[in-house]
């Protein structure tokens, strides 16, 4: 059993759907961990190692960011703070006069066993920032993020649909494949 460390219930629901496809279930705990200043890979690696040593068992963490090209990658590693302060409305305001709407979600899974080196697994998905929010599924930045393949925002997709193509699907799938081979 793998323990997923997060304070975000939406991530847990998505993770359960994704991992079911690979035949394993997960446990969920939220002891918290220090989020260092650095790339999402560094945050995930540090967090996984910290919690694996704290709880003395193998864990995964997920650090995610929305990287908007016209804003030089902002909010990126500040996505959590920006979601709580500027909110989606603030992002739309910053993007008002931008022609280039390209953005990426990046999810990095950090896996670690006690007293071991952490491993990281990155998943990205490309999309566009719309000029208004659409849809009331998903969470946080989802209603802003339009995916061409579905002609919908993540906010208009069901959890199952988002789980077919999302950044988190890709990072968790990479981890699940690696982990299955290791078992
Ligand atoms: P944990 O660190 O406890 O896992 P968190 O919500 O703080 O939970 P992140 O730091 O990884 O997670 O997320 C940064 C921000 O991006 C935060 O505001 C999230 O709500 C948002 N976010 C993460 N994944 C998302 C997704 O799939 N769709 C939309 N927004 C997302």
From TrEMBL:
Q: Which reaction does it catalyse?
A: dITP + H2O = dIMP + diphosphate + H(+); ITP + H2O = IMP + diphosphate + H(+); XTP + H2O = XMP + diphosphate + H(+)
Q: Where does substrate bind?
A: 6-11, 64, 139-142, 162, 167-168
Q: Name one GO cellular component term.
A: cytoplasm
Q: Name one Pfam family in it.
A: Ham1p_like
Q: Which UniProt keywords apply?
A: Hydrolase, Magnesium, Metal-binding, Nucleotide metabolism, Nucleotide-binding
Q: Where does Mg(2+) bind?
A: 35, 63
The record's listing under InterPro entries reads:
dITP/XTP_pyrophosphatase, ITPase-like_fam, RdgB/HAM1
Q: What class of enzyme is it?
A: hydrolase
Q: Where is the active site?
A: 63
**Cofactor(s) annotated in UniProt:** Mg(2+)
Question: A GO biological process this protein is involved in?
Answer: nucleotide metabolic process
Q: How is the cofactor bound?
A: Binds 1 Mg(2+) ion per subunit.
> What functional role does this protein have?
Pyrophosphatase that catalyzes the hydrolysis of nucleoside triphosphates to their monophosphate derivatives, with a high preference for the non-canonical purine nucleotides XTP (xanthosine triphosphate), dITP (deoxyinosine triphosphate) and ITP. Seems to function as a house-cleaning enzyme that removes non-canonical purine nucleotides from the nucleotide pool, thus preventing their incorporation into DNA/RNA and avoiding chromosomal lesions.
Q: Which PANTHER family match?
A: INOSINE TRIPHOSPHATE PYROPHOSPHATASE, INOSINE TRIPHOSPHATE PYROPHOSPHATASE/HAM1 PROTEIN
Which family would the database say this protein is a member of?
Answer: Belongs to the HAM1 NTPase family.
The entry describes its oligomerization and partners as:
Homodimer.
What protein name applies here?
A: dITP/XTP pyrophosphatase
Organism from which the protein derives: Methanosphaera cuniculi
């Amino acid at each position: 059993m793998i323990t997923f460390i997060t304070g975000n219930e939406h991530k847990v629901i998505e993770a359960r759907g994704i991992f079911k496809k690979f035949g394993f279930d997960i446990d969920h705990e939220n002891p918290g961990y220090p989020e260092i200043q650095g790339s999402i890979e560094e945050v995930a690696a540090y967090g996984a190692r910290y919690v694996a040593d704290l709880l003395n068992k193998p864990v995964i963490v997920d650090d995610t960011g929305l990287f908007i090209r016209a804003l030089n990658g902002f909010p990126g590693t500040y996505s959590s703070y920006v979601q709580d302060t500027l909110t989606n409305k603030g992002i739309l305001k910053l993007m008002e006069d931008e022609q280039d709407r390209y953005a990426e979600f990046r999810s990095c899974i950090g896996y670690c066993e006690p007293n071991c080196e952490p491993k990281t697994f990155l998943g990205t998905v490309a999309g566009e920032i719309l000029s208004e929010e659409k849809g009331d599924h998903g969470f946080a930045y989802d209603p802003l993020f339009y995916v061409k393949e579905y002609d919908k925002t993540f906010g208009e997709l069901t959890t199952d649909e988002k789980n077919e193509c999302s950044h988190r699907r890709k990072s968790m799938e990479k981890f699940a494949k690696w982990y299955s081979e290791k078992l």
